[in-house]
Write a structure and sequence with these properties.
alpha/beta, Rossmann fold, 8-stranded mixed β-sheet, 8 strands
Length: 312
């Protein structure tokens, strides 16, 4: 009888242990689908939920009417491009100036181009025309999955090419927030045309691996998430890393971060700044939260001074 009971326990333990890898990879697939597969219901989120910080939300509400009025009074043109993998990507150009440089603007995760209206209005006041894009799978752009900055960096090349096709002599600045910032930094590792004058990244992350470690407080989930990512999107999680790209970069770049960023820790700024090869500057805002430093005093003054100092 003891031998029979021992056999049963052994078989149970074997079955339990054999199921662990399946459960591990199933959970990784669940997390991948939860965060990478874009749920369009994000457009119905209450902005107070999205922003989180009550002080910043109040500032957002106070600015919103002026920003919308500015947008409605602007000369807006629709523009679409086709990505390297045959997605139709949607954007708008705000053209309030003749023969002016362009600012290409990339939004962050779970949002679209209109989240950047405050920055757009400020850049317009600085004399820029604007290209505000919906990144793949968000807004009006096609796609089912976000790629957290990797394929978005390749999409950025298409947007740049579209502007240069219209005007080969055009000067272009790049501005991105959070995931959009990471896409821009990734693109700086490519051979960009001389039309690109500068880049501004706000709250970007150095790698998706770092983001996962910080979000879930360990790195044990990375292999399981990576397995699903490679199967679904066709590339390795290690591709979403900007440090090597920054090490090649010679375009002037401004790094912006909030000291109390709850999504991308401040230490990331040091890694990014140290890795960058070319001209660079940084600013840390003691108030604010992830991706919303634009509501802090002096934000646009810092940007204007950077452009004046680094861009001829």
């Amino acid at each position: 009888m003891k031998e029979k009971n021992g056999l049963k326990k052994g078989l149970f333990l074997t079955a339990a242990l054999s199921s662990l890898p399946l459960a591990y990879y199933a959970y990784g697939a669940h997390l991948f689908n939860k965060y990478a597969k874009v749920d369009k219901s994000y457009v119905n989120l209450d902005m107070s939920e999205l922003i989180g910080d009550e002080r910043i939300y109040t500032a957002y509400k106070n600015d919103l009417k002026d920003n919308i009025d500015w947008f409605k009074s602007s000369h807006v043109q629709k523009i679409q491009v086709r990505s390297f993998d045959e997605l139709i990507l949607d954007g708008i150009k705000v053209v309030n100036h003749d023969k002016a440089p362009y600012m290409i603007m990339l939004h962050g995760y779970n949002s679209d181009r209109y989240i950047l209206l405050k920055q757009a209005k400020a850049f317009d006041a600085m004399g820029f025309n604007l290209l505000m894009v919906d990144e793949r799978a968000f807004g009006k752009s096609m796609g089912e999955y976000t790629t957290f900055g990797f394929k978005e960096s390749l999409d950025l090349l298409v947007w740049i090419k579209a502007l240069i096709k219209e005007d080969p002599e055009i000067k272009i600045g790049l501005y991105g927030v959070s995931m959009g910032a990471t896409a821009i930094m990734k693109a700086l590792g490519y051979q960009l045309p001389s039309n690109i004058s500068f880049a501004i990244e706000d709250s970007g992350y150095a790698s998706l691996s770092d983001l996962i470690k910080y979000r879930f407080k360990n790195d044990l989930l990375i292999p399981s998430i990576n397995a699903k990512m490679k199967k679904t999107l066709g590339f390795d999680i290690a591709e979403i890393d900007v440090l090597e790209a920054l090490n090649k970069n010679e375009i002037p770049i401004l790094f912006i971060h909030a000291q109390n960023d709850e999504v991308v820790p401040l230490e990331t700024l040091g890694k990014l700044y140290e890795a960058n090869k070319g001209p660079k500057a940084f600013k840390v805002f003691s108030e604010g939260s992830h991706a919303y430093s634009c509501f802090e005093d002096g934000y646009f003054e810092v940007i204007k001074n950077f452009i004046d100092n680094y861009v001829k």
